[in-house]
Amino acid sequence: MKFAIALLAGPQDPAARSALKFAEAVLAGGHQISRLFFYRDAVHLASTLGVQPQDECDLAQRWRAFIQDNQLDAVVCIAAALRRGVLNEAEADRWERPVANTGEPWALSGLGQWVDALQTADRAVTFGT
């Protein structure tokens, strides 16, 4: 079974951790993830600038490792990312900002990528509000 997973919750929201556990369970169960789509405050998970206290889970790093280890398609909504200051190299140059704070394995793209994922997935699951 193919799953499309959308995450709307930021790194501090329990829904972000629940989404990761669900995604891990999907793959462990022998299913596929056609696309992960990060929207609203979930785009902060793609930022390399967040720092967690040593005694807390670095959820952004866990998501990054999960995506890389499983070679998943992870799309960050470009409009939500720009509003929240999450920029890749191309957008940092385009908007004349001094630094980019996201990159591989994340791809900045539009909401159409989520619609495309819905067309190919057997199930769509959303975490957060």
UniProtKB/TrEMBL annotation:
Keywords annotated in UniProt: Cytoplasm, Transferase
Keyword Cytoplasm belongs to the record: yes
Cross-referenced InterPro entries: DsrEFH-like (IPR027396), Sulphur_relay_DsrE/F-like (IPR003787), Sulphur_relay_TusD/DsrE (IPR017463)
GO CC terms, sorted: sulfurtransferase complex
Subcellular locations according to the entry: Cytoplasm
Matching Pfam families: DsrE
Gene3D superfamilies, per database record: DsrEFH-like
Keyword match Transferase: yes
Source organism, top-level taxon: Bacteria
GO molecular function: sulfur carrier activity; sulfurtransferase activity
Any one biological process term the GO annotation gives: tRNA wobble position uridine thiolation
Main location: cytoplasm
Protein family: Belongs to the DsrE/TusD family.
Identification of the protein by name: Sulfurtransferase complex subunit TusD
